Amino acid sequence: MRKKIIYFCLLLISASIANAQTSTSAAFEKFALQQDQLFVKAYEKRDTATYNGLLKAFLEKFNTLDTTAQKSYARYYTSAYYNLACTYALMNNKSQALASLEKAIKGGYTNYAHIQEDADLNSMRSDKKFKAIVGPLREVGDYIYILKKAGKYNLNDNKPLPQFTYQNSSNSNLIALRKAFNLDSIAGGGNEVSKILNLLHWIHYLVPHDGNHDNPTVKNAMNMIAVCKRDKRGLNCRGLATVLNECYLALGFKSRFVTCLPKDSLNIDPDCHVINAVYSNDLKKWLWIDPTNDAYVMNEIGDLLSIEEVRERMINDKPLILNPEANWNRQFSKTKQNYLYTYMAKNLYMLQCNVNSEYDTETYSNNKVITTITLLPLEYFKQTPDRSEYNNNEINTTFIHYKTNNPTLFWQAP
Fold it and tell me: I need a labelling partner for 220 at 20 to 30 A (CA). Which of 48, 92, 140, 190 fits?
């Protein structure tokens, strides 16, 4: 058994027009968290009678939710059945354990790697039904395996794409941001890389991560920092990367926020992660910068790596080093295995960036046009259309989306 924190962000930019939680869903979230804690206690006591009573109460409320809400809270459903499977397995009740595990997987549990290493399930690993239930999960839940299958791109893909742009630090909003938070002092007087990392650490400790709620409606650094301070709240990973991105732009760094997406062939995984790619003129490459986890990644000799390099090294089994201070909300450290080889391996299947990196990139306003490009591996099952357009009349914003198989175009130097 393992309890895990799930980081939620918005899967595609058009989906970032998220609805605020209703009172019903907020109440269910509170209830589900309470039940989750009680499930753990029943598991620890091997008390299946209590566990099943709790599960019945959980399902009565869960089944009253609409389909969208059920999908949003499916993690509680799958966790409940997975942990019940562990409980039964530890009690050598193989038939009930297998039935519960099957319900967890059918409900959306995808962590194949954890199932393989979870000692709670050892009593039934040789069972044919166990192998039949778990085996197919490899294609959706063995993230390194999936990523390795996605290693091939097409360097000859020359479909027309818009040029990435980066707002100049002379923009009045960026000047105001620079002055308001004394960003020059925060960045310090060291070399370029030290300035980039100092800003990373500052944002990580200034604003906590909150992956279960939407960001403020006005999505720029000045407003989001002010709202977080006023309301004593945090931002999801997209919000944190947006704030940090604008801080980098304010100091003249070319920077993007990058949505890192899973393959999700079954359309059951709403999770992704958003980090920053910051261009280093000294190193002549983009750098992996993650404000949610205060994280950057190095090779075996300590060179900082780009998102592209980390992905390639995972695929080819090359060494990776996670900075030792990487952490989540100062509550626990991030490990290389959990952060890189499980969580980010899942979310490095395809990558998406806004074409225009600027202040207020995703604050919706009248007649705004937001353009994104997604880098797809050749193995992905939805290669077309090359270009799509969506008009949201409620917010008078147009979303244009391009796809490419060419990493050279996607990662072009600014």
Answer: 190
Contacts of 304 (CB under 8 A, 6+ apart): 193, 280, 283, 287, 288, 296, 297, 298
Establish whether the linkage from the previous residue to 414 is cis, with ω within 30° of 0. Answer: no
DSSP string, 319-370: --EE-TT-EETTTEE--HIIIIIIIIHHHTSEEEEESEE-TTTT---TTEEE
Nearest to 209 by CA among 143, 293, 289: 293
Environment class of 103 (CB within 10 Å of its CB; exposed 0-12, middle 13-18, buried 19+) = middle
Distance CA 347, CA 370 (A): 23
Q: What kind and span of H or E run contains 353?
A: strand 350-354
What is the domain partition of the chain in residue ranges?
A: 13-141, 149-410
Per 3-state DSSP, the chain is made up of helix, strand and coil in percentages (nearest 5) of 45, 15, 40
Distance of CA 388 to the CA centre of its chain: 24
Bridge partners of 351, per DSSP, are: 260, 375
Q: What does DSSP say about strands 356-357 and 165-166: parallel, antiparallel, or unpaired?
A: parallel
Q: Which residues contact 393 (CB under 8 A, 6 or more apart)?
A: none
Bridge partner list, 255: 278
Q: Which pTM value belongs to this model?
A: 0.85
Beta-sheet pairing, 165-166 with 350-354: unpaired
Q: How buried is 129 (Cβ within 10 angstroms: 0-12 exposed, 13-18 middle, 19+ buried)? A: middle
In this structure, the strands spanning 255-261 and 273-280 are antiparallel
Q: What is the pLDDT of residues 261-275, one digit of tens each?
A: 999 877 777 789 999
pLDDT for 402 = 98
- Residue that is written with structure tokens 């980390």 in the block: 310
> First CA to last CA across the chain, in angstroms?
46
